[in-house]
Amino acid sequence: MSEPTPEPTPDPTPTPEPPAQEPTTDWKAEARKWEARAKENKTALDDLTGRFTAVESEHGELAAKVQAFEAKEARAGLLAEVSKATGVPADLLRGETKEDLEAHAEVLKPLIKPSGPIIPGQERHPDKVPESEGRQTVKKLFGNN
pTM to 2 decimals? Predict the structure, then answer.
């Protein structure tokens, strides 16, 4: 007895059909296109890098100027504070720290004499200065009353 041959079962996965004819790609043209884009991007990158470097250097210069102005302002405030506390003019004081300035002010303080005559009673009425005897005599002598 011969065995019957089994019938072939259909394959559940369909066989791929040969692809339709795809248009041929011009690889040289594509390469030129991407090369041109890369060159444009490189040019733009160089331009932006130049701008960034310029802005960064300007930022550094401006930051240095701000620091210098802040240091100058802090020193001026320190000088004013020590000058007010000691009575020594700020333009005479030398030193970098408050302690240096105060020590220099203490050295200068005995050397500074008040300028101009001291008129008694002027602190009470600065616009009404009492006349001295010599001035009254001169007025009487020349008749300027």
Answer: 0.46
Cβ-based neighbours of 38, under 8 Å, separated by 6 or more = none
The total of structural domains in the chain comes to 1
In a domain, 143, yes or no: no
Inside any domain, residue 73: yes
**What are the tens digits of pLDDT across the range 108-143?**
988 887 677 776 666 676 666 667 888 888 888 887
Nearest of 119, 121, 115, 89 to residue 104 by alpha carbon: 89
Contact 90, 74 (CB under 8 A): no
| CA atoms of 86 and 102, how far apart (whole Å) | 8
Assess if residue 60 is contained within a domain.
yes
> In the 8-state DSSP scheme, what is residue 110?
G
Q: Where in the sequence is the domain holding 69, given as residue range(s)?
A: 34-111
Closest CA to 114 of 90, 83, 87, 81: 87
**Is 117 within the bounds of a domain?**
no
Residues 79, 89: Cα–Cα separation, whole Å: 9
Distances (CA, A) of 9 to 2, 5, 13: 21, 12, 12
